[in-house]
Design a protein that fits this description.
By secondary structure, the chain is α/β, with parallel strands linked by helices.
Length: 553
Amino acid sequence: MLRSLHIRNYILIDSLDISFPEGLVIITGQTGAGKSILLGALSLLAGARADASLISEGADSCVVEAEFSGKDEALAALLAGADVEDDGDALLIRRVVSASGRSRSFINDCPVPVGVLQEVAARLVDIHSQHKSLLLTDPRFQLSVLDHFAGNGARLAACRDAWHTLQDIRTQLEAARKERDRLEADREYNEAQWRQLDEAKLIPGELESLEEEQRSLANAEQIKEALGRSLDLLQPEGETPGVVAALKEAARQLEHIVKYLPAVSGLPARLESSRIELDDICSEIETLDGRVDLSPERLEAVEDRLSRLYTLLKKHGCTTVDELIAVRDRFSEALFDSSAAEDRIRELERSEQDAEGRYHGICAELTQARCTAAPGFASAITESLRFLELDRAVFDVAVSAAPEGATGTDRVSYLFSATGRDPQDVARCASGGELSRIMLSLKAMMARFIGMPTLIFDEIDTGVSGSVADKMGRMICEMGRSMQVFSITHLPQVAAKGDAHYVVSKSVTADGRTVSSIREVKGEERTMEIARLLSGETITPAAVANARALLSE
């Protein structure tokens, strides 16, 4: 329930601090006194749009704060999910609007997004403003009320889960089919590219090896000539001594004079070391000379292979054979992905069938529950309407097929006839007063079956008067026995039924500003307010007597 409301600098309200009791709370006041401003402040706490125009003249910000009590498990879980500190049974909601038009929201002094504020407020207060009778024309509202009456909460939750699962699978399936089609469109190209690269028998590092071999083969004669000449200089054939033989002879000559010139003792060994190194060099030159191939056929084969590799490198924008191998593997993976996509599609199609089976099974349960509950629901509303002096009224509920959705495959239509014959869609045949009575009957039923939060009626009794107004007051009063109900009204028959009565008034301050305020009235003051509602600006003794009679009831 709403325990208290605190407002600072909101439109015409400079400062307001007021507490509210349980039961039925009546709010009255002259037209234009500011009752709608009070509702606007509560709507702000419910997450309504905020801007700088809400701030009182001369103020730099406005603050609306309300304290609620009564917290169920679902609300506690919602607050925990939003990291809001638990403050026992109390719940403090605050909205601050700055001069820039930006607003901040708090729950138990913890900042929260407006979306969380809206979810929390929806579980705490239900504001039925004058235009909300138009909800009767909304198929979603009509279905929701019937579902509440039928106790379909668990089935609806299961249906929403099944629907979201089905939609998720369908989304995945659509994406998989698009990917398959894309891959299939490119399959012929990918296969041709992969086959060309696969037939090339690519070998890592092959390009560098072939380029080296090509240089060797292309210059084979020059290479062999240089190797042969180098070998002739080191080890010439015939009687001419070469460098290797000369080193050996020089070492032998030095060994003969060591005993005469000890300073040369280390030179023979050094010459021998040089001779051995040169001898090894000669052997390597001979080996290299033997490897040099003068085959034109091999040169042609190497150049053909290089030409093929260069063409592939240019075609695919690569610089090495390793990069070409990576390109080949990507084409191979694309071909594999095309096959894998078909497997994925078949798997998703099976999942879709299973999900559709679960979804339609739950939808069938919902349809059955709705069709079973509809006669009892219609009968209860009809009875309530006849209590409200629509003596021949008939209210009926039609359940028909609708496109698939999160709430099932049903459409609910409310049918109404004030004469008892030929019920039609309530949106086309009900007058304003009839809509008010139908909406009150629905709200009364929802209060009994749902355990609604604090309920605020903003002139739901518009378009009715006399004994009908009295009976609407009784119905609202009955709702107030099990929950907190606020009723903003101009009807004395309704106003007299309240457990508490508040009057909204407008005044002019010393500096010429117009401000609105609200205060509780009791005793004789309340009698006079009821009399004002009865007689208007001039309160007559008869109106006072009538007011006392209404209050005594």
